[in-house]
Design brief:
It is a single chain. 29% of the residues lie in helices and 28% in strands. The strands form two sheets. The chain has a seven-stranded mixed beta sheet with strand order 4-3-2-5-6-10-9, with helices on both faces. The longest helix has 11 residues. 33% of the residues are buried. The protein has eight helices and ten strands.
Length: 230
Amino acid sequence: MPDQLILSPKQGYNLIAPYYDSWKWQYFWRSNEYPFIERWCNTLEPGWGADLGAGSGNNLGCFLQRKHRVTAYDISELMLFVCREKFREEIAQGLLECYVRDINELNITQRLYDWLLCNRVLSHICDVSNVIRRMARILRPGGQCFISDVHPMHRYDHTHYNIGGKEIVIETYKHNIQEMQNIAYINSFSILEFQEITSPKLLEPGLAANFHSIQDDETPIFYYMIMKKL
């Protein structure tokens, strides 16, 4: 069997952008992960935040409804095209700006943001320490950061999509969560909340049977943590 061609996140997500929102995993994430993001969103006073790796904007609804000002960054211009189409009205109102950026290379020198969201992005980043350092530079003291991602113990090797019988494989990295938390402490973050979500803890557990990589045991599927900049 020939070796699989593994694409960079920019290449891969540009290819799948028109299909991303109909991907079967989207319902899983919307049902089991987004409620944690929404709950956190509802604790925040309206301010200025950034979604680092916003993709097609699936997590922006709560923030925009609550009249936050949001900057959406993503490496894929076609994913952001979908995001802009969804939120034309909010863009016109000045609530949302979208920029094609690699968050590995965000060269912002000011502490602009009251909150940061980074959802299923760090598993596409090789050097997580670099990104967390950049988060610390752009977040105001007292600001919060919500990180969630596929758990490194979950049974997967790369991110896979199937489009018309063609498999798209995107490079993926597994990071030790304790090491990530240590990097966060070094960069003056405190951990406010941390959870590992296993199959028994799913908010809609019946969905698990539709996904072969989910193990019906205590093996974590995804995690989230909420951090505060000191």
